[in-house]
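Worked example
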Amino acid sequence: MKKLFTLLSAALISVAIYAQDLPQPSPKAMVMQRVGLTDVTIEYSRPGVKGREIFGDLLAYGELWRTGANAATKITVSTDVMVEGKELKAGSYSIFTIPGEDSWKVMFNKNSTASTGQYKAEENALEISVKPMTAEATERMMFTFRDVTDKSAEVQLNWATTAIKFNIAADPSKMAEENIKAEIAKVEGAYGLYNSSARYYLDNNKDLNQALAWSKKSVEIKAQFWNVYTLSLIQHKMGDLKAAIATAERSKKLAEEASYGVYIKLNEKNIADWTKEMKKKK
């Protein structure tokens, strides 16, 4: 009985030790970046150089690497994206790499919790090749987002004096259009929504006939100096100068009634410019 008690005590002590939340040699990290309307999240652990030769020594060229410590690095994209021009569906993936002296292979694996011993090439959703770069020394491995625009970002991995990067593109245009139409369907009477949707189409050189229809709908529901102003801009862009000037006059009057000086000046300038433009065409 005494022996059994001793064994149970030892087991409980062992469990307690392993259950402790202690600092890790390669601490966890996470970076997230919104690209257009897409969220890109990278979760990884950050091993240190600790005076070692990393690539070509600790990590032999040509061998599979889980691209971090403790577990494979995980990337999650909230929508479909293009990685170096190749499609990657929305979801979570583990990132495996095969470092090389002149070229790295980067694999996005559907098993998002896989480690090196669980890696299966047939589960790769995407494979790309990238060129390694010589970079400023980085003690702990680090992922960063660079050159972020509304449509793309560069994901860069730095460790020791080596870096690699790959492009993630997520054009928000289609999603924006779908979001606009969905919101309009849900809020049929929202004149502000019709106006902002029309303005988006105008500013981004999309279907002007659709922009005109939404703008007119907004004004029909409730005419305000700002949505009437939008209508005048659309009419002008479509080449209907006479209608644009008349609409600008209406917007100016509404702005005067609201004592909104900025729109009074905007309309006055447009009326003057468009009147000159119309005279030149005659």
